[in-house]
Amino acid sequence: MNYLEFEKPLSEIEGKAEELRALARGNKEMDVEKEAAALDKKAETLLKDLYKDLTPWRKCQVARHPDRPHCKDYIEGLFTDYTPLAGDRNFADDHAIMGGLARFNDNPVVVIGQEKGHDTKTRIERNFGMARPEGYRKAIRLMDLAHRFRLPVITLVDTPGAYPGKGAEERGQAEAIARATQKCLELAVPMVTVVIGEGGSGGAVALATANRIAMLEHSVYSVISPEGCASILWKDAEKMREAAEALRLTAQDLHKLGVIDRIIKEPLGGAQRGRRETVEAVGKAIEMMLKELTGRKPDWLIKDRRNKFLDMGSKGLAA
């Protein structure tokens, strides 16, 4: 288990419990279970206290936790007959975005998501989930495929933002993001999105302009990262805590503002402490969102999606 900065007291208690059990395994005459169980109980109480009322900045840390389930985990856990499709038929295949044809509850769908990678090698290969223009053009190609064959589109968002490098800008990063967003708005099929970690800026919106949007309880979704916001507003990235508060990037704030439609509860301690339960909960949320859209006419789906984004924020302003 990787521990976040604010979880250090918890790591000490759980570490002591594990040390005791390790000693007992080496010496079978030692009886440490009672003491270890007391430490387990203390750790559980502390875990509840730590996650009872997380600040927006701490939610950012949890959303970025390296042990959280990533796009690949959800595809493997929820979809069958997954057939990945590669390349944008123009420049290259961007590994930061994965997607293809699959079955969800035995129904054919197109699934698209951002994958960060789980170790140093795969994180570099996936560019830490930051897609280049060819990634968004691959997503457009997959959405076109879904539109042509009348297949629902499911997207899984987890990115700090689109890649801002020189090459990406030279190949039309802004244009690719804009066209992906436009393509989402034009789809005549149901489209649902789940923000499973970070939803960063236009890099997220390009895959999240959907009929229904859900967020995991401790995920975040914002126009810019707290560090980037602090650097621009205060010329000091260390003010990221204040920026996180101001950005209203938590699932709870965004649900109040009408930006998202539902919050998916995470296990105590975050998705990283209950990966299987989280994947199952996301699957149930996707099933419910698709059920709301099943049988709707293409014109209704397009109008519903457009009105959703035109009305965005009015709910919070009226309150």
From TrEMBL:
Per UniProt, residues of the CoA carboxyltransferase C-terminal domain are: 38-292
Going by the UniProt record, its keywords in alphabetical order are:
ATP-binding, Cytoplasm, Fatty acid biosynthesis, Fatty acid metabolism, Lipid biosynthesis, Lipid metabolism, Nucleotide-binding, Transferase
InterPro entries the record matches: Acetyl_CoA_COase_a_su (IPR001095), ClpP/crotonase-like_dom_sf (IPR029045), COA_CT_C (IPR011763)
Pfam families, from UniProt?
ACCA (PF03255)
Answer yes or no on keyword Lipid metabolism: yes
* Top class in the EC scheme: transferase
Q: Which GO terms describe its cellular component?
A: acetyl-CoA carboxylase complex
Q: Which reaction does it catalyse?
A: N(6)-carboxybiotinyl-L-lysyl-[protein] + acetyl-CoA = N(6)-biotinyl-L-lysyl-[protein] + malonyl-CoA
Q: Please state where this protein is localized.
A: Cytoplasm
What is the protein name given in its UniProt record?
A: Acetyl-coenzyme A carboxylase carboxyl transferase subunit alpha
Organism, scientific name: Cereibacter ovatus
Starting at the broadest rank, the lineage of the source organism is: Bacteria, Pseudomonadati, Pseudomonadota, Alphaproteobacteria, Rhodobacterales
Q: Supply the gene name.
A: accA
